[in-house]
Write a structure and sequence with these properties.
Elements: H1 3-20, E1 37-38, H2 47-60, E2 66-68, H3 70-75, E3 79-80, E4 87-100, E5 106-121, E6 125-126, E7 136-137, H4 144-149, E8 154-157, E9 163-165, E10 170-173, H5 182-201, H6 212-232, H7 243-255, H8 259-276, E11 284-285
Parallel strand pairs: 1-2, 8-10
Antiparallel strand pairs: 2-5, 3-6, 4-5, 7-11, 9-10
Helix pairs in contact: 1-2, 1-7, 5-6, 5-8, 6-7, 6-8
Length: 286
């Protein structure tokens, strides 16, 4: 199983899903508000793997967000049903190479290489023993207001449409009653907070509307908002203001599919940065 083929397949599936929802501005991640996690370790999947598992959940209607490899399910006493097809993901493995330099001394070089692996959802298994799946409590379960309140961003409420203004380093938001639900307001705020992380994480905000860099930053913020919403357990917002970006996103991803891997990585980093301000207790696994 070639890792590059797996990477290309994941990107194509994301492109197809964005394309399918383009007329309704419905992104494939707007129906998911939980993070997929490894059933045996309790660790959540991250970045592009989260997207891949969300797509599988939508496509097959899985009721569980617990996943594991065939060997992990087997070790836990569960049996993957015959004929089930797994979902291919990617992990990055550090690869050390030693080579002699001109002085015949050994020097060590290290680089990350993609390695493909396959996971199966709990719904694809039979005879799962009680306790085989670790039950994971989201880090901010029932307390998502604390997550947002802890972030030291300057937010001016009641001052217009949602936006991050990098020149002033402030976020402007409408009044809360402009949103149908509190969760929808926080989901929109998560998008603008993702933009707010750009100056803290060194992302480029010099692009103008219509530029590739501008569209890429919007997609980073869109994905980060989805990751953040999953972290705090609220549904991400369906935003009709994405319409101007959809064709641009599709063009960028089709021209350079690997761009999505960088976008997803930066979106995950943005969400991780926002989470550091809350310093929650370690993820509870039982």
């Amino acid at each position: 199983m070639n890792a590059n083929d797996v990477m290309a397949d994941i990107v194509q599936r994301v492109i197809d899903e964005i394309d399918a929802g383009a007329q309704t501005w419905h992104m494939p991640w707007t129906t998911q508000h939980t993070l997929p996690y490894n059933a045996t370790t309790g660790h959540p999947y991250r970045g592009i793997n989260t997207l891949a598992l969300w797509l599988e959940t939508i496509h097959h209607g899985h009721s569980s967000n617990a996943w594991a490899t065939y060997k992990q399910w087997n070790a836990a006493g569960a049996q993957v049903r015959k004929g089930e097809h797994g979902t291919r993901l990617i992990r990055w493995v550090e690869h050390d190479t030693n080579r002699p330099d001109r002085k015949q001394e050994s020097t060590s070089e290290s680089r990350l290489l993609p390695v493909a692996f396959v996971v199966f959802n709990a719904d694809q298994c039979d005879t799962i023993p009680n306790g085989a799946i670790r039950q994971v409590t989201p880090r901010f379960e029932g307390n998502f207001a604390h997550f947002f309140d802890a972030i030291p961003a300057t937010i001016r409420w009641g001052t217009g449409n949602p936006a991050y203004l990098p020149a002033l380093d402030i976020i402007v938001m409408p009044d809360w009653d402009a949103f149908h639900t509190t969760a929808a307001g926080h989901a929109t705020l998560a998008h603008e907070l993702a933009h707010w992380t750009a100056l803290r994480l060194g992302r480029d905000l010099t692009g103008r509307f219509g530029d590739d860099s501008y569209a890429v930053e919007e997609l980073i913020a869109e994905l980060s908002a989805a990751f953040t919403c999953a972290e705090v357990g609220i549904p991400p917002a369906i935003r009709d203001d994405h319409a101007p970006y959809l064709n641009h996103w599709l063009r960028i991803l089709r021209a350079e599919p690997r761009t999505l891997w960088n976008i997803a990585s930066q979106a995950q980093t943005a969400t991780d940065h926002l989470a550091t301000y809350s310093q929650p207790a370690a993820r509870t696994v039982r």
